[in-house]
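Deliverable D5.2: sample structural annotation.
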Amino acid sequence: MKATARRRDGKLEHDLEMRQHRLKSDEPRDQGGGDTGPNPQELMAASLASCSAITMEMYAERKGWDIGDVVVEVDYEPAQRGSPTRFELVVKLPKELPEDQRERLMTIVNKCPVHRTLEGEVMFEERVELT
C-alpha cells in the first residue's frame, strides 16, 4: 500500500494520493494552516474508525447477520510527556442486536488491521531521494 503527500500552494496543505483516490490534508488556522482538510492525526483517527466499522460489517456479512447501521467514533489523544497515546472507540450498534452478536462484534473490532498496527510493534525505514 502506498500513500503520497504533495505540498500545495498553501503553507501546510497537501494533496494525498492513494491508488486513484485523492484527499487533502492541512492544519487548523491556529496551527499555521488554512484548515482546508483534516490534519494527519485526524486522518489517523478516521482510519481507525473506518477500519473498525468495515471489519465488523465484513464479519457480520460472512455470518449472515443483519447488524443494521453501525457507527464508530474514535477520540484520539496524542502522547504527552509521561502518558501514552490514547484512543477511545465508541461503537454504536442497534439496541435490537442480540447480546451475543454485540459481544462478538466488539471482539472483532479489536482485530481490524489499523487497530493491530497501532497496538503492535512498528518499524520505519526512511531514505532521501533527490529529484
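Annotation notes: Strands lie at 4-7, 14-18, 21-25, 71-77, 86-92. The CA atoms of residues 60 and 67 lie 7 Å apart.
The annotation will be released with the project's public dataset once the embargo ends.
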